Structure formats: C-alpha cells, structure tokens
What we know:
Strand order of the largest sheet: 1-2
Distance between the termini: 57 Å
Structural class: mainly alpha
Number of strands: 2
Strand content: under 5%
Largest sheet: 2 strands, antiparallel
Radius of gyration: 20 Å
Amino acid sequence: MLVWGLFIALVIVFLALDLGVFHKTEHVIKSKEAGLWTAVWVTVALGFSGVIYWLFSSGMVENPTGLTPNNAVLKYITGYLIELSLSIDNVFVIAVIFQAFKIPALYQHRVLFWGILGAIVFRGLMILFGVALITKFDWIIYVFGVFLLYTAFKMLKSDDSHFDPKNSWIFRQIKKIYPITSTINNHDFFVKRMGINAATPLFVALIIIELTDVLFALDSIPAILAITADPFIVFSSNILAILGLRSMYFLISRMLEKFRYINYSLVVILAFVGLKMLFSHHIELPEWVSLTVISVSLVAGIIASLAIPEEKK
C-alpha cells in the first residue's frame, strides 16, 4: 500500500504543479509549448519503467501474477503505448465538444485539467473492478475479447464526423437537471443570472468530456488487461497516459486531418488485443510481439497519412 500511496501522491504533485505553477496564468497553448509538454510527459512515463523494474526486483510491490522485473517493464511500456494510442480517438471527440460549445482556446486547458482529474478517479475504480473480475472469473477474459473485436469493427465502420454533442443524450439530461446558459464568464463553470445559478458552456463541456472518457475507458481498460492483470502496472501506465492527454490534445488536435489513417491503426490494435484475449488460454505470445504490433501499427498509420495524398473532393 505504501507504493500505491506514494504513486498517487506523485500524481497529485504533478497536477498541483501543472495548474498552480506552470499554468497559473491562463493562456492559449501553442503547438510549440504543447509539443514540449508532450515530450516531458512521455519522458516521465517511459522513465517510470525504471521505477517499475526496481519495484519488481526489490519486492517493494505486490506481484500477484509472478512477473520478472524485465517482463514487468515490457508489460508496462506495452500498456502505456496502448493507452496513449487509444487516447488519439479521445482527442478527436474533445475537439468536437470544444467546437460545439464554442469554448475559447484560453480556457480549454482549465476544462481539460478538471476532466483529467475526474478521469483518474473513474478509471482507478474501473481498473480495480476489471482486475477483480479477471482474477475471480477466468471466462470474463473472453467477454472482454469479444467486446474489443466488436469495438474494432464498430470503429472501422463508424464516421465520427457526424458526432454532435448538443444532440447527445448526456446534454439533454444536463438540461433537465440544471439550468444552462450560453454565456461564458471568464473561466467560471457557473454564473448567476436574475437570481438563478446556471451552468456555463465550460461546465457542460467538462461533464460531456468526463462521461465520454468513461465510455472510452470501456475499450482501453480491457485492452490493457489483455497485456497484464497486475493492478499496479495497469493503474500506473493508464494514469501516466492520461496525464499526458492534455498536452497531446493541444498538439494533435490541430493535425487530426493530416493523420486520417490513424483510425485504422487503432482498429488493428484493438483487433489484435481482442484476439489475444480470446486465445490467451491456448497461445502465449512473447511480450515483445505485442509491443511490436502496437508500435508498427501506429507508425504505419502516421506514415500512410503523410505519404498518401488526400483525394480532392
């Protein structure tokens, strides 16, 4: 429990420094700054693999699945890359939500900060629940495998360009529960108009981002559970990927049209992980195979997006 407490304390320190020091003054995040912070978060996450090696070699953390230090590091990096790659689809949805509610670029970082904070809590609960299910019921891994294959197929056939947050079920429920105003008052989530408290577009965008992240977690958490059922590796790789989501959003959201084939990379990753779950009791793949498939899929999607000219409509 000491290791878990220290890790959660480290995450809280990161978040406090982010909002209270580095982004104390609200400003528009430019691509250069976003690229720098993305590099910082990726470096921190990959550097944490050294901590994983030390924890598993020293016995400082519980090791219910009996991993060797080297295997623990490989599973951590593979899980982190899965979460990072699946976050790309999340970036597109966040961009659509901000555009739909006309959230100024000046306040987008603040909305994402609180969105990430909530996502950490929800994902932590979902990870503990998912690990408990796999540990207690062996057959649940087949359910997760089929679900991931279905998600890959749905992602292949769907067209996210028609997603409209203002017509979503979530937005309609918020309107029923609490008054909503179209007025944006600085970075406030609530304003008082004619004696009535009303939620601003910033709060509405925050809630929709929060709940859509829960939906994305239904894909990403089973995907990482296919790599390992070790709770600390699953939790740490997931949370460190989420912490880098804000800077990655400001970097990638402006280049989404260029990476038009990255969606196929995500389909391949989800399909591979789903098949790995279905055959997990019959075929045991070396960890480097999973890492290679995920890395090659992402690189291939990026290269294809840059190399293949877009057809003129």
